[in-house]
UniProtKB/TrEMBL annotation:
Gene3D superfamilies: CO dehydrogenase flavoprotein, C-terminal domain (3.30.390.50). This is Xanthine dehydrogenase subunit XdhB. One of its GO terms (molecular function) is oxidoreductase activity. InterPro entries: CO_DH_flav_C, CO_DH_flav_C_dom_sf, Diverse_Substr_Oxidored. Residues 53-151 form the CO dehydrogenase flavoprotein C-terminal domain. Keywords: FAD, Flavoprotein, Oxidoreductase. The keyword Nucleotidyltransferase does not apply.
Amino acid sequence: MAYDATVTTNLRQRLTMDQMLGDGSNGSIDHALSPGEIIESIELGIPVANERALYRRAISRSYAEWPLVEVVVRAVIADGAFKLVRIVSGAIAPVPIRHLAAESAAQGAAVNAATIAKAVAQSTLGAKPLAMTAYKLTLLRGLVQDLLEGASA
């Protein structure tokens, strides 16, 4: 999602990640493949000049094999502004989530603490966590802030 990947299966070609994963609204499924459909290849988009990419995950020390929350940020910064921003998280919904509101808050804006704070605040927009997983929103905000700060350093 962060790299505009496309997927080819034995039945379909050049599926976007949204087509491949669905929109996440059905919590009982984690992909939109048909029965018998097999992934044959995944193609990533071409990196952008001067791109910075960072990934972090929050884990429980006793159960470190699966992240509680994971985030990837891609950014291009030029002339003191965010020229490209992609923010994608995993482990907080049945499918990865691209945080379009957070991206929009940073896109074209000055690289500073206020812009990062706006993007962080937007990263949980529309979230409807279960009572037992509400803590993941705090983790998500922390990771988004950490990665945007890291990308802008």
